[in-house]
Design goal:
single chain; 5 strands; binds shikimate-3-phosphate; alpha/beta
Length: 166
Amino acid sequence: MKIILIGFMGSGKSTVGRQLAAKLQLPFTDSDAWVEEQSATSVSRIFESEGEAVFRKWEQRFVEQLDEKGEVISCGGGLPCFHDLMAILQEKGKVIYLKTSVETLVSRLENERKNRPIVASIKDETLKEEIRTRLASREPVYRQADVIIETDGKSIQDIVDEIVKL
Ligand code: S3P
C-alpha cells in the first residue's frame, strides 16, 4: 500500500513523509528528489532553463512509473494539479492532503523561498496574496484526497501519529 502526501509548499510533506516511512518501516520517496536524480539537475534549474512545462512532464513520468510496492511518497506541491495526476495518484494509493493555513505557509515560506522557483522571486509584500491565490486555485484538487489532515498547531509527531492511526 502506498501512502501519498500532497499539499502546498511548506505544508511539511517531506518531513512528515520521512518520519512516517521510518515509523512504518517503509521506503520513502520524494517526487522532487526523484526528478532531480533522473534529470541530473535541480528543480530550480529545470524551471530556469527549460520552463515549468518541462518540470510538470518530469512529475508525470514520476507518477506513471510508480509500481505496486508499499512506500510513503511526498509529492511536489503542484504535482496533483497537472496532467490529471490526482486521478492516477488515487489509483496508486491512499492520498493524504496536509492542509495548512495561508498564515502558517507564509511564515514558513518567507525564509525558505530560494529553492522554490514558484515563490523565489515574489516580494515579501505580495507573498501572502500570491500564496492565498495559488492555494485557492489548487484546493479543489487537494480536497479530492482520501483523507484531509489539518496541520496547523500540530507537531510533526502528532501528524505522523494521526496518519498511522488511520
Ligand atoms: C512546486 C512545489 C515544489 C516543487 C516545485 C514546484 C509547486 O515542491 O515541486 O518547486 O508548484 O508548488 P514542494 O511542495 O515540496 O516545495
